[in-house]
Design goal:
3 domains, Gyrase A, domain 2, four-stranded antiparallel sheet, alpha/beta, 613 residues, 55% helix, 23 helices, Rossmann fold, Isoleucyl-tRNA Synthetase, Domain 1
Length: 613
């Protein structure tokens, strides 16, 4: 049991005894060490219930806790061993209760970290859960832009957080290989046939060509009625797998998917399954037509109050409108959307309706998470409302998580206009800037390992910069801040990890010189030492890692891990600057634990550590 949970559990017992009713108790991590390691505001919440001053209530709760810890007769019984966990409890204005952990517990945590190693921070709270997470979702025939990159980083980090809590996770990617955008791209491929690269050209060149082709088709579709009709006809031929477009379709699809795979490999994402609109469109259309005919039964309360009373007919889920089939979202405070167009072709909405049961058939999930940009929020409200009517059980299991938009100062993104900041460009530019900023990596004699280091550091700069913010907010990406070794950045965390490894290796070398080749078998014990404030601050930060991981998964917030790691690195670097570590067993154990915790946390963000920088 985590110590925060232990404190909360005992607070609940005391509050229940005082109030004679259950009251929700929240225990939070203190931001300042002078306020302890944890605090609760439960006394402030109880003031209106008990009609007493919050500080008086805080003192009463504090007294009850202390009596329970000491085992005084008549006191509320205490669960768990708080006596060795909590050193002291304080009640302070206006009614907060602060908890200070004992040095014994802090040292036990240090031993626990170094014993667990790579497993530290993992739990089994979701051991029986099956979770499917859909993310990235680039469309073949279009370029992989930074929005897809951001979606990938969010989805990969959330997948790792779920896995760290014991869940079985399927990473899946849903891609639009049919639809109007494909028709626009194939139109452009025809028009630009004299510029078309061959199959032996680099993947990036072929991807750029597909982007230009789509942009041309999109512009002409909007500006020329004749071209619009031509592209609409192409769209129908693609859907019907007409032989006249088969070769271009096959080429464009293969080029795109091969290019996407190269990016996934670079980012470290391994999808369990790729889904395509072409495979779920028919199922989606079938569902729409089925529920157009039979509708869905209304809840009993609605039937009783309706015009037909108890025996009234089921309400229609879908409606016919101007030759198309729509979902009447306005009935539910949303907006109407077309699910099958007037040409009889299922739209994105119908395909998403067919995707849900297709996914569930492959992997009977307990939860399905879909990650997209927040511009699709209203779209998914309608789709999930339609799913609620056609498959209520899957609707309950499905969650849409919208993320913000990534912006670069002075740059706009518009795939229709051909103005795209690609994910590959952002990664390449970050690596290039790392090499320019740190010339030692760019020396002529550098090894392949140095190049790998620059790649890992460049990707760390991007991943940390995009994951350190709240998922739903837009992000202004700044290269200077992202590649810095001194601020809140991925490279700074990697550098701190390298520093911990360097200290341990130097100590190991010194011990071999002093004690011979068997020095590595020596145990680094922790004695009963008088700890310095910088040592205590690092210890207190280490204690909160498991809780942070748990909360990050629960709140779907990788940024909590990112913030935690920066705080830990900052505290460790201050400790490093003020105290000699080599030769001191306790400080070496502390350094080892910091390095392990940073590494474990970076893994959750999809960031690799490096040995040298």
């Amino acid at each position: 049991m985590q110590v925060r949970e232990l404190i909360a559990q005992n607070l609940e017992r005391i509050v229940r005894r005082i109030t004679k009713e259950p009251v929700e108790v929240q225990v939070s991590i203190s931001e300042k060490s002078e306020n302890g390691d944890y605090y609760t505001n439960v006394a402030l919440k109880l003031a209106s219930i008990l009609k007493q001053k919050p500080l008086d209530i805080a003192y009463k709760i504090k007294s009850e806790l202390e009596k329970g810890i000491m085992g005084i007769k008549g006191a509320t019984s205490i669960t768990g061993d708080l006596s060795s966990t909590v050193d002291r409890i304080e009640a302070v204005n206006p009614g907060f209760i602060n908890f200070f952990l004992s040095e014994q517990y802090l040292q036990e945590t240090l031993e626990h970290i170094n014993k667990e190693g790579g497993k530290f921070g993992r739990s089994e709270k979701l051991k029986a859960q099956k979770v499917m997470i859909e993310f990235t979702d680039p469309n073949p025939f279009k370029e992989f832009h930074i929005g897809h990159l951001y979606s990938n980083l969010v989805g990969e980090s959330l997948s790792r957080l779920y896995e760290s809590c014991g869940a079985t996770v399927w990473r899946v990617c849903y891609q639009g290989d049919v639809g109007l955008h494909v028709a626009k791209a194939i139109y452009g491929m025809k028009k630009l046939s004299d510029q078309m690269p061959d199959d032996s050209s680099p993947l990036s060149i072929r991807a750029q060509f597909m982007g230009r082709a789509y942009a041309l088709g999109s512009r002409d579709y909007e500006s020329n009625k004749t071209v619009k009709q031509e592209i609409d006809d192409l769209n129908k031929k693609i859907y019907e797998q007409d032989s006249s477009v088969r070769d271009l379709y096959k080429k464009g699809r293969e080029w795109s998917l091969e290019y996407f795979d190269s990016i996934y490999k670079r980012l470290g994402t391994n999808f369990k399954r790729f889904y395509f609109e072409s495979e779920v469109g028919e199922e989606g259309a079938r569902i729409v037509r089925e529920f157009l005919k039979k509708g869905v039964a209304q809840p009993p309360a609605q039937r009783a109050s309706g015009p037909g009373g108890k025996g009234s007919a089921p309400e229609e889920v879908f409606e016919e409108s101007e030759g198309a089939i729509i979902f009447p979202g306005k009935k539910y405070g949303l907006h109407n959307r077309v699910f099958i167009n007037s040409a009889g072709i299922p739209t994105y909405e119908a395909k998403d309706l067919g995707l849900a049961p297709t996914k569930y058939k492959d992997f009977p999930y307990d939860q399905s998470i879909i990650i997209t940009a927040h511009e699709q929020t209203e779209y998914f409200k309608v789709v999930l409302k339609a799913l609620e009517h056609t498959n209520p059980e899957l609707a309950k299991k499905t969650m849409h998580i919208p993320h913000g938009v990534v912006r670069l100062p002075g740059r706009k993104i518009s795939s229709r206009a051909g103005e795209v900041i690609t994910g590959e460009w952002l990664m390449d530019e970050a690596v290039a800037r790392i090499l320019r900023e740190y010339p030692e990596m760019a020396s002529p004699e550098r090894s392949r390992r140095d190049e790998d280091t620059a790649e890992k550091v460049g990707l760390a700069a991007i991943k940390y910069a995009l994951l350190r913010g709240t998922i739903g907010r837009d992000i202004e990406f700044n290269f200077e801040e992202s590649i810095s070794l001194t601020g809140a950045s991925g490279p700074y965390l990697q550098y701190t990890y390298v520093r911990t490894r360097s200290v341990i290796e130097k100590n190991h070398e010194a011990r071999i010189m002093n004690h011979g080749k068997h020095a590595e078998n020596w145990e680094l014990g922790i004695g009963n030492l008088k700890l310095e404030i910088e040592e205590l601050n690092v210890l207190r930060q280490l204690v909160h890692f498991e809780e942070t991981v748990d909360e990050a998964q629960d709140r779907l917030s990788p940024n909590l891990v990112a913030e935690y790691l920066f705080d830990l690195a900052s505290k460790f670097n201050l400790f490093y600057q003020k105290h000699r570590i080599v030769g001191n067993s306790f400080r070496l154990e502390l350094t080892r634990a910091v390095g392990q915790t940073i590494k474990n946390g970076l893994v959750l963000l999809g960031i690799e550590t490096v040995r040298k920088m």
